[in-house]
Amino acid sequence: MPSDSDGDAHERLDRKKRKVQKSAEDDSVKYKPYIKAGYSRAYTDNSTNAEFPVFVESSEPEIKLGNKNPLVVSKYFKQVKGIYESRRINANKIMLVFKQATAANDFLKHECLTVYNLRAFIPASSVERVGVVRFIPKESSNHELFNKLSSECEIIGVRRFMKKVVDDVVPLSTISVIFAGTTLPQYIYLDNWRYKVYTYIPPLMQCFKCMRFNHYGKICKNIQVCSRCAGEHHYKACTADTLKCSNCGGAHLAISKTCPIKAARLEKNKQSYAKVIEINSVNFPTLPKPQQIQQKFHQSKLDTQENLDISYSNIINNKKILSAIINTLVTIGNSNDIKSTSKIKEAFLKHLNKV
Ligand SMILES: [Zn+2]
Ligand SMILES: [Zn+2]
Ligand SMILES: [Zn+2]
């Protein structure tokens, strides 16, 4: 029978164990990516997008919707209203393009999805932007940060970057923030501190089976390549003395950042992502197609004489528009609070109506 002190020691040990377990649990909750309650991706009614894409894939992973006969796939969506065009994205995925936000949103709940066992979702890049913020105190949980952070764009989610250290996962002071809309705010605020928001560049995908890029090993059909010697075996079975990269033939690991091919891929990844952000950040309404302008042009003949001189080719020669643009730039230059595209647009429209 254990003595009293032994019993105490056991109890203390148990309590300590429970405490360690509890804090690990706390951490997994604390640093779990937080997404606004009840949030699901949808297009907003006031969206100025020219098209509203929706991705569709099969709910069963072995069925490749993108490889099916388009005529067969079209039949699935016979009852769906407002499809403007369909596109194949890859073996698994197709994209349906709608011209109306509501038609795209309605499609997400369409019964054909249940009937044919399909999953439909709005691509993140169409309705969200992800920013990175540095030097955020590690004490705060993602949920707390979500409640305390503020910016000119609506915040949808907060995720803290974590790093694996031996068997532990430790929090870093960098977080990523998901914003609603297609513009990234310049700054975000936390407890009266202003932080710069950087564009999030997703990591470059490199396959651990064939060492090539932009796909994962799980779906890779290529033969196994050793990341150390480029031979046809797993790197754990490698007996080679010298390194040889399977992508460029150089004397380094195939996963090394010093590989010129990988470096070029990383740079391309960065640039193409920055380009997407730049294009989508322009929040002004898209220009109508030439046919629509023609129609408008004829209609306006019937309306007022003033509308006649607004068309594609002579917008810049139009004194009214040019003066509105110049006045808007002057207003922005003189103002401290016109920072968002919506504010600039507001100022521009105000000047346009004045002249
Ligand atoms: Zn591969
Ligand atoms: Zn090898
Ligand atoms: Zn290389």
TrEMBL record:
Residues 1-27 are annotated as: Disordered. This is Uncharacterized protein LOC128198176. It comes from Bicyclus anynana. The gene is LOC128198176.
